[in-house]
Model the fold of this input.
Amino acid sequence: MVKLTYYMDGQGASADPQLQHFIEIESQKQRFQQLVHQMTEVCWEKCMDKPGPKLDSRTEICFVNCVERFIDTSQFILNRLEQTQKSKGGFSETMLD
Done:
């Protein structure tokens, strides 16, 4: 069980660092589950013609390729967003000097 503890500082109450860490981990788990759900939905629609007791080799290869492309694309987008944030942050810091 998570203990809720608040500390008063000069700027108001702040959450316990353990609670903040717990919330961040749970948020990451939720984002991961959403990503898996989205990937499953996309790849299922793309690769599954008619469900059966076993996957044929063509369907299996399609799923593998779909998942790999989905992961590659997600990683590319995350890297691009990170670069964009860094470049905007660097620009803002330069303007403040």
Summary: The first strand starts at residue 6 and ends at 9.
